[in-house]
Amino acid sequence: MVAVKSVFAPYIYVCTRMRVRKSKLIPHEEYMRMLNMSLPEITRVIQETEYKQEIDELGTVFKGIDLIEVALSWNLAKEYQKIQEITPGNLKEFTRSYLRRWDIQNVLTILRGKMQGEKVGKIKEILIPAGSLDRVMLDRLLAEENPERIIEALKGNRMYPVIAREYPVAKESGSFSHMENELYKQFFSEIIAEAESGIKGGNQFLDFIRFDIDIRNIKTLFRLRADNFEEDALEMFIPGGVLTAMDFASLNAIRDPGEFIEMLKVRIRNKFLVTLLDELKGETAVRDVEVRLTRVQLDQMESLSKRNPFSIHPILVYLEKKKYEVINLRALARGKESKLPSEKIAEYLVV
User: Fold this and answer.
1) Which pLDDT band, with edges at 50, 70 and 90, does 134 fall under?
2) What is the DSSP letter of 28?
3) CA pair distance 233, 201, nearest whole angstrom
4) Which of 299, 246, 290, 244 is nearest to 271 (CA)?
5) Nearest-angstrom CA–CA distance, 310 and 308
6) Burial 145-155, CB ≥16 within 10 A → b, else e
7) How far apart are CA 313 and CA 302, in angstroms?
8) pLDDT at 8 (0 to 100)
9) How far apart are CA 347 and CA 351, in angstroms?
10) Suppose 348 and one of 83, 99, 169, 331 were both cysteines; which one would form an S-S bond, judging by CB atoms 3.0 to 4.6 Å apart?
11) What are phi and psi of 8, to 5 degrees?
12) Given a cut of 70, is residue 269 above it in pLDDT?
């Protein structure tokens, strides 16, 4: 019995640490309070939270929105790196696999920034070096003078074949959306293969991955409906979830909103999603749909975490909720900087 406890002790320790960290995240009522504050007041509130060190360190170099942007990025990257350090065994492998999605976001941010002529400093402010591409590699990519050189510098990286194949089309169209979708297809294909390779705890990791894929596909379906987009819509489908490619194509072909919702409920069979879908009948605002789907995803993750308290789930819950805390604070700061009404900013908060 002692030997068994000693084997599980690191897992119990890290999962308990994740719950403690999660308890320190900014609560709903604090966001509501910040909606009525000015940008300097929001900065002071953030300075009283887990972001204090970054705000203090960067306060002599950056001001206003720039200070918040850089402090949030630094804090999130540092937090993700710390979690990788303290996570044991297979949980470390799953965590690293999950965080590789930041490679996609960082590379696309750099490519978009370079194509649009953004200053290097502005691009760097919003990068999160939490994946396999560390700060040194991201700085190297930023130093390249154009997207072609950036892609060349990525030779040897698992993303390179997809980026090299998709870049000519992205350059011609001025949009990286198809490249992004192809990169996520590759990412999810690889991560599913890793989880199915027989590693202990892989099935629990798969529960999260498959639901993540379903949420992405459902968001895509709602966006397609809003844009009345039909041509090559199936290219936007990501395999690996409950929804099949045939399901996706059939759902996308349904024009009646009520019929679409009912058919989606039959296909998805998830109690969290079914409840939300009933509420979304007649819903037209895509942004609101996406935010509410994200909330459902977080609720599902919380449920999995409670059922599996010493698994990958408590780690994933914290990683996701920490990410959305940063997204929420950015939305608040940017909204205030742009002088948007509080009720408009609130629409972008995942709380």
Assistant:
1) very high
2) H
3) 34
4) 299
5) 6
6) eebeebbeebe
7) 8
8) 72
9) 10
10) 331
11) -85, -10
12) yes
- pLDDT per residue as tens digits for the range 249-268: 999 999 888 999 999 999 98
Average pLDDT over residues 133-157: 95
At residue 2, does pLDDT exceed 50? no
Angle at 153 between CA 182 and CA 319, to 5 degrees: 55
- What residue spans in the chain does CATH classification 1.20.1690 cover? 100-195, 202-310
Owner of token pair 């920034």: 113
Q: Terminal CA-to-CA distance of the chain, rounded, Å?
A: 42
- Helix (H) or strand (E) holding 134, with range, is none
Q: Residue for token digits 């870049």?
A: 167
- Among 218, 321, 320, 349, which residue's Cα sits nearest to residue 277? 218
How far is it, in rounded angstroms, from Cα 229 to Cα 177?
14
Rg of the chain, C-alpha, whole Å: 21
Place of tokens 């605002």: 285
Look up residue 33 and give its two tokens.
């309070």
Task: Return the amino acid letter for 60.
Answer: T
Instruction: Tell which CATH classification among 1.20.1690, 1.10.3470, 1.10.150, 3.30.420 matches the domain 202-310.
Output: 1.20.1690
Residue (of 144, 183, 156, 190) closest to 167 by Cα position: 183
CB-CB contact of 238 with 181 (8 Å) = yes
Q: How far is the C-alpha of 209 from the C-alpha of 240, rounded, in Å? A: 8
Is the pLDDT at 9 greater than 90? The verdict is no
Sign of CA dihedral 125, 335, 105, 87: positive
CATH class of 100-195: mainly alpha
**Is the per-residue pLDDT at 4 higher than 60?**
no
The whole-model pTM stands at 0.92
Joined tokens for residue 7: 């084997």
For 239, the 3-state DSSP assignment is coil
